[in-house]
Design goal:
Largest sheet: 4 strands, antiparallel
Helix content: 10-25%
Number of helices: 2
Order of helices and strands: EEEEEEEEHH
Length: about 140
């Protein structure tokens, strides 16, 4: 099964880090907890350990690249496309659902559904009180 390892947060408040060096290359077989990279940030240089066992099929960035936390770094046991199993189809469904929600929201806010005159009210809202006799206590 394809796994994508993403840039971890190696320090409190760290938003990015530089891949100082790769300790692996495409084609290497690694075990969980093997050292795979050295990451440098403004506070430290740290070895990163692999959370997965498997064959490295893609490195997303070169050494010397500054990478944001959460960005993809390594593909394990994949086909080199950088897509984890099941991600492509679920992403398409999510995009389609988001588009439908946006379309529905746009229709709800279209000029045909918004008041055109200042002070206008919706049908049946408050109309019965316009002609009602004042209440005297």
């Amino acid at each position: 099964m394809t796994e994508i390892f993403r840039m971890p947060d190696v320090g409190e408040g760290m938003h990015e880090g530089e891949i100082a060096s790769w300790l692996i290359k495409v084609g290497d077989v690694v075990k969980e907890e093997d050292a795979i990279a050295e990451i440098q940030n403004d506070k430290l240089l740290q070895e990163i350990l692999s959370p997965y066992s498997g064959k490295v099929t893609k490195l997303f960035v070169e050494a010397g690249t500054v990478v944001e936390v959460g960005a993809p770094l390594i593909e394990f046991d994949g086909d080199g496309t950088g897509v984890a199993a099941g991600v492509a189809s679920s992403t398409l469904v999510e995009v389609a659902a988001t588009s439908e929600v946006t379309k529905t929201a746009d229709q709800a806010l279209s000029p045909a559904s918004t008041p055109t005159e200042e002070g206008s009210v919706g049908v049946g809202v408050g109309r019965e009180k316009e002609n009602a006799a004042p209440v005297i206590n």
